[in-house]
Amino acid sequence: MSFTVLAIIVAAALILITGFYCLVKSRNMIRMIIAIEIAMKAVTLLLVFAGKVSGNMDLVQTFIITMIVMEVVVAVVAAGIAVSVFRHNDSLDIDKLKKLNG
Amino acid sequence: MTQVIFVILLLLMVIAAVAAVMVRNLIKSAICLAAVSVFLTIILFLLGAPLAGLFELSVCAGLITVVFVSAISLTTPYKKEEASELAKKRLARFIQLPFILALVAIVFGVMLAFSGMNIGIPYATPSTFSTFKEVFWNMRQADILGQIIIVLAGVFAVVVLFKERDEK
Amino acid sequence: MPTSLQFATATIMGLPFLAILILNLVNRKTGNQLALGVGIIVAVIQMISAIICAGLLWANQKDFIDFSIFWNMTDSAFAGRLSIDFFSIVVLFCIGMVSFISFLTAKQTVGDKKLNFTNLLMVIMLGMNGIAVVTDLFSLYVFLEITGIASFVLIALFKDPEGLEGAFKYLIMSAIASAFLLISMACIFMNVGSLVYSDVAAAMLNWQAADQPLFLMAAFIFFIAGICIKAGVAPFHGWLPDAYQSAPAPVSVLLGGIVTKVAGVYAIIRITSDVFSGVATINMILMILGTISIVFGAVATLSQKDFKRILAYSSISQIGYIVLGISTGSPIGFLGAVLHFFNHATFKTTLFVNSASLEKQVGTRDINEMGGLEGKMPLTNVSTILAFLSTSGIPPLAGFWSKLLIIIAVWQAGAHFVAGTAVFASVFTLAYFLFVMRHVFYGPLKEGLEDVKETKGSLALATVLLSIVTVGFGVLFPFVLRFLQAQGML
Q1: Residues C229/C179, Cβ–Cβ less than 8 Å
Q2: I want to staple C466 with a disulfide (CB 3.0 to 4.6 A). Which of B132, C148, C281, C350 is the partner?
Q3: Entry pTM
Q4: For chain A, what is the domain count?
């Protein structure tokens, strides 16, 4: 397979791993939301690559547009929850959210 | 020539994503996320998805950055003493990331290159606005309905979560 | 199309919209007063339209109904249709029933947030109805996200620290699951060129001969992982106990009764029977995951003290039974899984309503602080006994029949060890529930609980209705079985 194709798949995998690594290892709630967004970018790259390979670019563009709308709403809701937590705890540290046991 | 441009863009995208994870300041991290979106937009344009690229630029590189910056401005993460302590430990936690990425890139790339898969890119009819319009409005009606509903859900979410009312 | 069909399909996707419009165009005070009433009307109409659809399917002897919204596109060949079949009707009816019970619970527990609660519940009903009727993988993702967003906000409705924590954990795990689902859809799209269920099923039948079989295998694994995270199947269940415990009372009723099941197990069943039916290993994977869920859920309740957390782990166990039923691939197993879906909606909702009653009257959810309540709360006592017995599968209650069908199907599929484990877990569940009952209701009355009164009003009505359904269904089911056998379906 050509080098571009290989590069796209590897780049998408790398960005995905970056996003999930940040999600697991970070302690700030807003950074976790940024990590989710990074993972979504990787998925967008993979989707557009799938569209190019299968030849059906129109359908993939509709998927990407709808996915971007979903992503924005998830980011807004997550930011809302983070701000509400800050108003309670005065801190965005996820380790301080241990009220529920186990 | 376009191959080289592609590879450079992908590399810049990965570097911007790693930067978004590893910088300390939250606002700089949000700006690195916007940079990832910008590079993704250019890649989308080059691959033949101009409408998706338009959406990606205006929404992800614009709207989401505004949301993040406003959320960050409404909150201050740590107090000064805690912040410097955490900063030192932070580098230790995140320094493994570039090495893991390099390792995965080499292993995965070699595996894919020698797996014998042949992913060809067929010649397809270019995606023009009229074909896209037909597909979007005739075939994906459930998605359109879903977008309307989720925007409604987002509006209700903002009303519930962001309003500060006196709890007396 | 006959007008009854138009009415029924319009109510599924359009009526909650109308309700949102009505509730938000009047001013806030009127909206707050009207909200729960409007919600109850919408839920009841949904139940009625589900029954109408069932009648139409039966009368016309068809397997499914296709319909479209916005404008008539049944003439175009690639139209993305919405379709209802037998299982969708059961799911739609359950959605209506549990939403109705949730509104009854909310009457006494929500306070002044009635308008926000009803708005969000209308959105979540739209989302779940959408999941039940779509025929396309990407639309499934869209409606899964809608249901998820509305659930996060509902869990965090009162903005108490516990609720916010549960909502954030659920959000993070749901976002990971969505990323997995989208990756899987991209890999499928590379090979198939479309994401409609029938196209993907046709391509999966000989998936080794596709263009990139490795990508299809990766797609399959990612899809199972993503959908199991959303469903709360062990070992991907991390968010479930926290979310169920920290949600407000009517939201727990909704989550435990229907949301997790539609957004998870229903999607698994739909994918298994319609999309991935060609892949041979899916049955084995689902059987393993189902067994792990059953055993883990039953055992993990041992160390819990909070009543709602016990119910959450029991939900994980029952979802394992449904997954086990579908993994056998036989019609008996499928029928058992569908039935257990309905029964779980009934008895789990009863238990959550009773936990809301207990919390409201006694003031705590910790079982160690309760004791001897049988004299003070007889109605709650009886309905909790009935619901627990139905959960463990004791005849003649409804849970017995569905568990029996599932275990028979597993036995017939040759996995004797798994069937034995399922029976053993059932007995274990029963033993533990009797222990909880003894703690909460029997024994000496603990000090400080002297002036606990019985629940009244809407919570009592909800409990009574659900108990009648549990007992009635259990008693009437043999006739349904005989009827189905006469039709030659078993």
Answers
A1: no
A2: C350
A3: 0.91
A4: 1
Average pLDDT over residues C374-388: 82
What range defines the domain where residue A83 resides?
Answer: 3-95
CB proximity under 8 Å: C 376-435 to A = none
- Tens of pLDDT along C91-115? 999 999 999 989 888 888 887 888 8
Chain C CB within 8 Å of residue B141 CB: yes
CA dihedral A9, A13, A15, A19 (to 10 degrees): 150
User: Quick check: ipTM above 0.90?
Assistant: yes
- Lowest-pLDDT range of C18-27, C53-62, C147-156, C229-238: C53-62
Domain ranges of chain C: 291-490
> For chain B, what are the domain ranges?
2-125, 128-168
* Domain B2-125 classification at class level: mainly alpha
Residue C162 neighbours by CB under 8 Å, 6+ apart: A99, A100, C245, C246
Residue among C126, C131, C199, C208 with most chain B CBs within 10 A, to mutate: C126
Identify the helix (H) or strand (E) that includes residue C127: helix C114-133
Gap between the Cα atoms of B60 and B44, Å rounded: 13
Please give the DSSP secondary-structure letter assigned to residue C64: E
Per-residue pLDDT at A99: 67
For position A61, which CATH number holds?
1.10.287.3510
Of all helices (H) and strands (E), which one includes residue C96? helix C86-109
